[in-house]
Task: structure prediction
Amino acid sequence: MSTRNIVLLVVGVIVLFLGFSGCSGYNGLVQKDQNVKGKWANVESDYQRRSDLIPNLVNTVKGAANFEQETITQVIEARAKATQTTISADDLSPDKIAAFQKAQGQLSGAIGRLLVSVERYPELKATEAFRDLQAQIEGTENRIKVSRNDFNAAVQDYNTSVKRFPMVLFSGLFGFTEKGFFTADAGA
Result:
């Protein structure tokens, strides 16, 4: 076998290896990208559940005599802002995740202030409707936490694959870029 044939054989093997790695890696990235999108849909669904509970909570609280209108208004405005901040599952960049998280954090803060101010109204706390809504909101907050953790785990797996050799050579060519995580709020 001549030197030329050996070189062609080695180059051919390398090209085949890169081709198989690229195809296999591409399919793996597509699968992980779809997993991240599915986890994101779960996060949005849980935040939507919380948003859907807020009008019932506000209406229940409004029934209490002399309840702070400013607190109710803050919750309503924060809910409106949070529902306007949406992200496409195809663009989960760190900046977009941070903006979404900020809007949702403002709503969480407003709900927290509302629930704290309820402490001054024992007759409201005693109503079954309020207790049920409070339990549903607490349960939904737990669901949100679990969904965010699942999303972050999927993003970590995806980002690791995007950056791992040899996929780092192909991921940019195929449009697979790093995705953003949910992070702890400042001072949390």
In short: The two ends are 69 Å apart (CA to CA).
